[in-house]
């Protein structure tokens, strides 16, 4: 009792001697060891922009999985795999906000508005994006909207499609014998009429590995333009559909042949295009080892 009385007297004296720095509301809060901001912080909305990886659910990071399970609602893209979506608990709301080339989709501005709206309602929002949020995921447009609305957010990286593709196909992204660098580019821009700088692209293709995201619909023209810039007709090219999933398909060809090969194979899923000599260094990965999900007991 004496200890409690002494502590009370000490806090009371401090409160009188520092009236500005010690508001009355903090006096009993300090005595009881409580956090005066706790209730307010719990009621504030927040957003986690999370990378879902390239497809295989086991490539989700532990942090991504934890946040998905702790969320109030998950907004997910078209490129997020079904197995990943299945990891969202039943009590967590889910909302599709996907965008696919050539198909009806939600406008980016509307997605940004929706994320802000949910966070302002006090919800913990996970914005789940295929691959890694930093690569061709329009993350900046959403973070700008969140910043303007004074909503706290964090970004959780994911394995990008090119890295997953490389591991699951055995096609290296670099090889010191032929490619000391790698470039990731997109074939689609904010202006749908815009094209990559073909002069610079040809220089990159000639000296390093180039991985093209979202380039399937422009494959034929890309190959023709590269040949016009002096890239040899027999330059190695590969198209990888549904990278890292059990439905993954790899089509290898050249600038001359790849378009026809892809057309004959009726490729329609998410596809990466790889241009470069590294294709000739492909190692034959046994993907059955990667998709073997036998239970392993803890030691």
Could you describe the 3D structure shown?
With 299 residues, this protein is α/β, with parallel strands linked by helices. It folds into 2 domains: 44-159, Cobalt-precorrin-4 Transmethylase, domain 1, CATH 3.40.1010.10; 162-281, Tetrapyrrole methylase, C-terminal domain (Methyltransferase, Cobalt-precorrin-4 Transmethylase, Domain 2, 2-Layer Sandwich). Helices cover 36% and strands 17% of the residues. The strands form 2 sheets. Strands 3-2-4-1-5 form a 5-stranded parallel beta sheet, sandwiched between helices. The protein has a 5-stranded mixed beta sheet with strand order 6-7-10-8-9, with helices on both faces. α5 (82-85) links the parallel β2 (73-76) and β3 (93-96). α1 (2-17) runs antiparallel to α2 and α6 (108-120) crosses α7 (139-148). The longest helix is centred in the first third of the chain and has 16 residues, at 2-17. The protein is globular, with a radius of gyration of 26 Å. Mean pLDDT is 86; it is low at 16-41.
Distance between the termini: 50 Å
| Total individual domains | 2
CATH class of the largest domain: Alpha Beta
Number of strands: 10
What would a concise description of this structure say?
The protein is an alpha/beta fold.
Record keyword descriptors for this entry.
299 residues; alpha/beta; Cobalt-precorrin-4 Transmethylase, domain 1; Methyltransferase, Cobalt-precorrin-4 Transmethylase, Domain 2; 2 domains; 5-stranded parallel sheet; 5-stranded mixed sheet; 12 helices; 10 strands
């Amino acid at each position: 009792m004496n200890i409690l009385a002494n502590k009370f007297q000490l806090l009371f004296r401090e409160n009188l001697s520092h009236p500005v720095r010690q508001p009355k509301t903090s006096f009993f809060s300090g005595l009881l060891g409580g956090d005066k901001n706790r209730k307010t912080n719990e009621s504030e909305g927040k957003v986690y922009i999370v990378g879902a990886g390239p497809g295989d659910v086991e490539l989700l990071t532990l942090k991504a999985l934890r946040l998905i399970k702790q969320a109030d609602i998950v907004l997910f893209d078209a490129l997020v795999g079904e197995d990943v979506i299945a990891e969202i608990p039943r009590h967590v709301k889910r909302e599709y906000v996907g965008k696919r080339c050539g198909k009806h989709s939600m406008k980016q501005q509307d997605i940004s508005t929706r994320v802000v709206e949910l966070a302002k309602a006090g919800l913990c929002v996970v914005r789940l994006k295929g691959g890694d949020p930093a690569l061709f995921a329009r993350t900046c447009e959403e973070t700008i909207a969140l910043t303007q609305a004074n909503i706290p957010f964090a970004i959780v990286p994911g394995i990008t499609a090119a890295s997953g593709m490389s591991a699951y196909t055995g096609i290296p992204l670099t090889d010191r014998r032929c490619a000391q660098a790698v470039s990731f580019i997109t074939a689609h821009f904010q202006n749908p009429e815009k094209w990559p700088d073909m002069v610079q692209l040809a220089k990159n293709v000639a000296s390093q590995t180039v991985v093209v995201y979202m380039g399937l619909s422009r494959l034929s023209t890309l190959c023709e333009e590269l040949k016009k810039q002096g890239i040899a007709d027999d330059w190695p090219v590969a198209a990888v559909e549904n990278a890292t999933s059990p439905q993954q398909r790899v089509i290898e060809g050249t600038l001359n042949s790849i378009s026809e090969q892809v057309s004959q194979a009726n490729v329609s899923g998410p596809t990466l295009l790889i241009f470069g000599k590294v294709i000739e260094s492909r190692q034959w990965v046994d993907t059955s080892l990667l998709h073997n999900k036998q239970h392993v007991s803890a030691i």
